[in-house]
């Protein structure tokens, strides 16, 4: 990533970092570091007695952090979250893979989340790895088709929307899931890091560095606006782009962003206050873009210049 791109990524994320807790700050910045370095991002969720995913970082149910459940994209991805929770509730072991193809204006890069059911002191958990692939839409479709032959749910994929809505439940036949993905995805560096546990070590170090950045530059609002704070964030970023750029006015954004970001994804503007007219952020029913009203003002049309029906938004 050129210096200008690193700076843009930092500038987009710093306003949101200023408006979150220290714990969420550290987890988010560490995950952003892993992603831009193209290192798998490991993190865990607990599974409640009802099978719901619970974030220990956000101290909340993952699905409660999802703002967009009504746009076409929001409905598809929320359907996938519910399917993952049903799988987690009904199985004692297993692995699922959720593929997110790139989408203009939302996801600049493709990503998969590999989820494993595991137990820690008798408590059921989901151990996740978010992996950026930089595949285009056709490559994601090919991957989904190939993975179907290794799955137990055997979905039929005809387009990217069906991929977004349907996690693949792998039938590993008691073998490591990585053996399957390694055959289908040419990414030897990623698989080597996962097999050796190096990705976990990188995450541990990223968390340590993010904690230092938070303590030194983001406990004081004035200092958080300084060039030193920006430089500290930039220095943690790698050469790859962020797959899920912050969406203006969205507290969390899409369901995939929530599940892929340890349920602590934050927006480019932090938390947007409401006004006398109510909530100031809302998704466009036509394209899913999160729109933000001016304070005590109105929105005449969707703020996404590529929206197929801008007048679907009028608030």
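^ structure tokens above, recovered residues below v
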């Amino acid at each position: 990533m050129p210096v200008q791109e690193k700076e843009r990524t930092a500038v987009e994320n710093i306003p949101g970092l200023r408006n979150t807790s220290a714990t969420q700050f550290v987890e988010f910045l560490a995950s952003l570091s892993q992603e831009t370095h193209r290192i798998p991002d490991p993190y865990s969720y607990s599974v409640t007695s009802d099978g719901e995913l619970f974030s220990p970082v956000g101290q909340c149910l993952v699905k409660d952090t999802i703002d967009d459940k009504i746009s076409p994209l929001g409905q598809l991805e929320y359907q996938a979250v519910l399917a993952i929770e049903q799988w987690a509730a009904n199985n004692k072991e297993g692995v699922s893979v959720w593929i997110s193809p790139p989408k203009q204006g939302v996801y600049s890069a493709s990503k998969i989340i590999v989820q494993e059911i595991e137990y820690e002191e008798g408590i059921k958990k989901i151990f996740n790895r978010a992996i950026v692939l930089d595949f285009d839409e056709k490559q994601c479709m090919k991957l989904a088709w190939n993975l179907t032959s290794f799955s137990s749910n055997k979905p039929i994929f005809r387009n990217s929307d069906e991929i977004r809505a349907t996690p693949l439940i792998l039938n590993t036949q008691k073998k490591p899931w990585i053996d399957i993905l390694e055959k289908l995805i040419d990414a030897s560096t990623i698989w080597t890091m996962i097999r050796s546990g190096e990705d976990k070590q990188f995450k541990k170090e990223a968390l340590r560095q993010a904690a230092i950045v938070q303590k030194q530059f983001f406990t004081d609002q004035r200092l958080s606006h300084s060039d030193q704070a920006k430089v500290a964030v930039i220095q943690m970023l790698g050469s790859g782009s962020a797959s899920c750029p912050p969406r203006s006015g969205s507290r969390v954004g899409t369901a995939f962003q929530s599940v892929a970001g340890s349920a602590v994804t934050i927006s480019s503007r932090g938390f947007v206050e409401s006004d006398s007219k109510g909530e100031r952020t809302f998704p466009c029913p036509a394209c899913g873009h999160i729109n933000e009203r001016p304070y005590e003002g109105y929105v005449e049309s969707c703020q996404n210049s590529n929206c197929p029906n801008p007048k679907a938004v009028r608030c």
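Residues 3-260 form one domain.
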